[in-house]
Amino acid sequence: MEGDVITMTDIYVFEQTGFENGKVIGRLRPTGLRPRFMDKIEQAGIRLPASIFGVGERSASRRWTSRT
Known about the structure:
- By secondary structure, the protein is mostly beta strands.
- It contains one helix and two strands.
- It has a two-stranded antiparallel ribbon with strand order 1-2.
- The termini are far apart.
């Protein structure tokens, strides 16, 4: 929340890898952002590893590659 404005962003995005037998094929990929409400979740006794949100990971789609 920024002032009186609520801001939202994705913590997961769907990455489509194909289309098979009339169905979309893909997976949910973490964006690397940790939700602000995680403190409340942890206070409730729920422990989730940071890797579930992609924190500390570097996905292949984010790596810089040189194409010459």
